[in-house]
Design a protein that fits this description.
Distance between the termini: 39 Å
Number of strands: 14
CATH superfamily: Ribokinase
Order of helices and strands: EEEHEHEEEHEHEHEHHEEEHHHE
Number of domains: 1
Strand content: 15-25%
Strand order of the largest sheet: 5-4-1-8-9-10-11-12-13-14
Low-confidence stretches: none
CATH topology: UDP-N-acetylmuramoyl-L-alanine:D-glutamate ligase
């Protein structure tokens, strides 16, 4: 039985280079590029697999870049179920400026998909021979796909008897929540936009998350707060994790590593608070990696004992 199925409707090849300085007009001499398979669900699949999860990734591919994406993912021993696209799979570009330590990220929208193409991705999910424990849909919605795409994923996951995990933003996230899901993983900007209210205090953040749970829109809200740690909230309980005292090399992939760690731990039968600790360790391990690298299992294992979480009691309304 496949434990985890991830779905990525807008996959990409992530290209990373070093450059001495970013300047206008001049030719910028870069290091040899590093290419990684990318897109939210694909990154979650890579992390969950590294941490011992049984994972299958569903995604569309087009052209030579799409074929490269599939080869790179299968090189990591992550099983793929691909569907064809008439357009070339997109690329994203990240440049690390050596003189300042800053990163410049260029994220492309992806080319428009035909209706038959995004429906084929959903059909792949609906026709799975084995029922997964978790269906994770993560990332952006490309042009041509409807804002309701993630809601449709949730509907299919329910029909499979799977727990649904959604990591997207804006209208697509709001639509998925109307369907009702198991877990969402917004960052603070995304949650603030969703609830249309300022969330300057932890009390306000917990209350907003708990309201989503109480309304049956998301059973669990994992709110990532960057350098300020994370919150994990259900209708009855809430935990807070403080950030680890480490020097970040790159924040790219931290959120996907968090979610991959969380789902892998839950699929392994770990209780919610322990899975939260694994997620925080995975996100922390990711920021130690340069460029578009994700967390490594040895770093997760090393950092896990350092992760401190506390349950917030009494629960705040």
């Amino acid at each position: 039985m496949t434990e985890i199925v991830t779905l990525t409707i807008n996959p990409a090849i992530d290209i990373f280079v070093n450059v001495a300085r970013v300047e206008p007009t001049r030719k910028l001499r870069c290091s040899p590029p590093k290419r990684d398979p990318g897109g939210g669900g694909i990154n979650v699949a890579r992390v969950a697999h590294r941490l011992g999860g049984d994972v299958t990734a569903i995604y569309p591919i087009g052209g030579q870049i799409g074929k490269l994406l599939q080869r790179l993912l299968e090189r990591e021993d992550v099983a793929s179920l691909v569907t064809p696209s008439h357009v070339e799979t997109r690329e994203n570009f990240t440049a690390y400026e050596e003189s300042t330590g800053k990163q410049y990220r260029f994220v492309l929208p992806g080319s428009p998909l035909h209706r038959a193409e995004w429906e084929a991705v959903l059909d792949r999910l609906a026709s799975l021979a084995e029922r997964p424990i978790f269906v994770v849909a993560s990332g952006s919605v490309p042009p041509g796909a409807p804002d309701s795409f993630f809601a449709r994923v949730a509907r299919h996951a329910k029909a499979l008897g799977a727990k649904t995990v959604i990591d997207t933003s804006g209208i697509a996230l709001a639509a998925a929540l109307e369907e009702g899901v198991t877990i969402i993983k917004p960052n603070l900007v995304e949650l603030t936009e969703l609830v249309a209210a300022p969330l300057d205090r932890d009390e306000d953040r917990i209350a907003a998350c708990r309201k989503l749970a109480a309304e049956g829109r998301a059973e669990i809200v994992a709110l990532t707060l960057g350098e300020h740690g994370a919150l994990l909230v259900t209708a009855e309980r809430a935990w807070q994790a403080l950030p680890l005292d480490i020097e970040a090399v790159s924040t790219v992939g931290a959120g996907d590593s968090f979610l991959g760690g969380l789902v892998a731990a839950l699929a392994d039968g770990k209780p919610l608070d322990e899975a939260f600790r694994v997620a925080v360790a995975a996100a922390s391990a990711a920021v130690l990696m340069p460029g578009t690298g994700l967390c490594q299992p040895e770093d997760v294992k090393r950092l896990l004992p350092q992760v401190k979480i506390k349950e917030i009691v009494p629960a705040l309304a």
